[in-house]
Design goal:
heterodimer, A: 114 residues, mainly beta, 4-stranded antiparallel beta sheet, B: 117 residues, 7-stranded mixed beta sheet, 0% helix, globular
């Protein structure tokens, strides 16, 4: 079936450290891939996306590359800030009935200390 | 724009009680959906709607009802609450269904934290 697996959290980093949050997926066909971020007390927001193999999504200093050969979509940022503290969700989109649906990973909590 | 709003933010129910979680959006989005978020399981789709008057089941619909009488509102009803429905519930909307293109970016509400005793 279709599924998304993320590295477990919480992840605690110091400000300006390098961030990697691993995400791997299982899906039939070629799904689109997403990273969503959830700041404390808020709903999920789209952070970045990639719709085909080798695409790189980027936003706010975050990047992720769609790797078909390793079925991965790891999230990276070169220098994290305290304001990046949030829960990050990897998701894939599949065809479903009249449209599509998102399948989410379990989320990875990131805490950045000053 | 207020975006996607949800009420209440927190709710405690006793087993067997009923309640309605409210969701509204002011972006004129056709597609709306309800998810539940449980520890270690990510978000799972409960019900969705592709427009006013049209709803369909997601992957975990049992115990929940929905209706879509207007474009703006998409309430989720629990007819007889059970402890297994303790969760955080998110409503989301997008211009089109999450299929392809730029119209499918989903906007999420802040969530409702529900506890069923």
């Amino acid at each position: 079936g279709n599924s998304v697996t993320q590295m477990e959290g919480p992840v605690t980093l110091s400000e300006e450290a390098f961030l990697t949050i691993n995400c791997t997926y299982t899906a039939t066909g070629y799904p689109s891939l997403f990273w969503y971020v959830q700041y404390p007390g808020e709903g999920l927001q789209l952070l970045l996306k990639a719709t085909k193999a080798d695409d790189k999504g980027s936003n706010k200093g975050f990047e992720a590359t769609y790797r078909k050969e390793t079925t991965s979509f790891h999230l990276e940022k070169g220098s994290v800030q305290v304001s990046d503290s949030a829960v990050y969700f990897c998701a894939l989109r599949i065809i479903y009935n009249q449209g599509g649906k998102l399948i989410f990973g379990q989320g990875t909590e990131l805490s950045v200390k000053p | 724009n207020a975006g996607v709003t949800q009420t209440p933010k927190f709710q405690v129910l006793k087993t067997g009680q009923s309640m309605t979680l409210q969701c509204a959006q002011d972006m004129n989005h056709e597609y709306m959906s309800w998810y539940r978020q449980d520890p270690g399981m990510g978000l799972r789709l409960i019900h969705y709607s592709v427009g006013a008057g049209i709803t369909d089941q997601g992957e975990v619909p049992n115990g929940y009802n929905v209706s879509r009488s207007t474009t703006e509102d998409f309430p989720l009803r629990l007819l007889s609450a059970a402890p297994s429905q303790t969760s955080v519930y998110f409503c989301a909307s997008s211009y089109g269904p999450p299929l392809a293109g730029d119209t499918d970016t989903q906007y999420f509400g802040p969530g409702t934290r529900l506890t069923v005793l």
